[in-house]
Amino acid sequence: MNLDKVVCNCMSITNGDIKDAVDSGASTLEEVQEATGAGTACGVCCDDIQHLIDQFVAERDK
Q: 3-state SS of the chain: helix, strand, coil percent to 5?
């Protein structure tokens, strides 16, 4: 996965920013939004963010 890929264009948040938030303890969309601002403008990326959260939480909790 390209961690430099932008997932939230409105806030310029990358896959790596989402991973960092999850690695720091965020495990819900709301927690990631609070930590990064991702998905808080237009919201079109929220499904993509949730998919990333699910993936990163699964990796973190292995």
A: 50, 10, 40
- Cα torsion 51, 57, 58, 62 to 10°: value is 170
- Global pTM reads 0.94
Those residues of the chain that have pLDDT short of 70 are none
Which helix (H) or strand (E) covers residue 6, if one does? strand 6-8
What is the Cα–Cα distance from 46 to 40, expressed in whole angstroms? Answer: 9
Cα first-last separation, the chain? 18
What CATH number is given for 6-60 in this structure? 1.10.10.1100
